[in-house]
């Protein structure tokens, strides 16, 4: 891992010295810096390592050992991946694991390693909403938000340490930091807006109502008033504001999506399935 980082990132760093300096020099502080020092296969390697750390820590991340429940959620993921908007279907893993705790959250490691908590599966009320959330996580992986943030966070440090040659341990620190506390999974507001937008695009041509993720936002906002601790973890990794619901409504209007029906929400089948969760 350390050698992998040194060899690959350093080569790309030199290639990218000028663009990085240019972009950083021009950055006004608003809008995401859309460059990435990592390749898509780096995302896969990082995700694989993170996945190993997660499965090696059952105290914090107990994986639900139920093939039928995992297959049901994986079936939704596989259906979303049929969208022509998906770029890394053959490259990224796109395998889901259910974490067997009552936390209400989901996350994506780089390279398409996806995780959803049982608490979230019990919290949502229809399959279209779950599909919206899974599509949102797929979008974080597809848009490579983690490694873009790492580029932004470490770009200059890396550059200076390479140019000055005074701190060979910087790259090793990055590798280690990645796996501590899942810090790389903390998304910015811009990442959230973009993941919502792509979630909508992925679902637009699917059997699900593409705006159903807003029901999740609305239910959180309602319950967060009385039980804020319930959503602490979710909101620390996926910032939520009223603009996210407004933007979903804008996309629904823009594409003239008619009001949802049971035929594209799948409320009854979902709520039946939900009762079978342990
Ligand atoms: Zn998110």
Written overview of the protein:
By secondary structure, the chain is mainly alpha-helical. 59% of the residues lie in helices and 5% in strands. The protein contains 14 helices and three strands. β2 (106-109) and β3 (113-117) form a beta hairpin. It starts with a helix and ends with a helix. Bound molecules: zinc ion. The site of zinc ion has 6 residues, from α6 and α9.
Number of strands: 3
Q: Please describe the biggest sheet, giving its number of strands, its sense, and whether it closes into a barrel.
A: 3 strands, mixed
- Give me the number of helical elements: 14
Estimate nothing, just give the exact number of structural domains. 1
What would you say about this model in short?
The chain has 278 residues and is mainly alpha-helical. The protein has helices at residues 2-15, 17-26, 40-55, 67-80, 118-123, 127-142, 145-164, 170-178, 189-204, 213-224, 232-237, 242-254, 262-265, 267-275, and strands spanning 95-99, 106-109, 113-117. It has a 3-stranded mixed sheet with strand order 1-3-2.
Chain-wise SSE layout:
Layout: H1 2-15, H2 17-26, H3 40-55, H4 67-80, E1 95-99, E2 106-109, E3 113-117, H5 118-123, H6 127-142, H7 145-164, H8 170-178, H9 189-204, H10 213-224, H11 232-237, H12 242-254, H13 262-265, H14 267-275
Parallel strand pairs: 1-3
Antiparallel strand pairs: 2-3
Helix pairs in contact: 6-9, 6-10, 9-12, 10-12
Bound molecules: zinc ion.
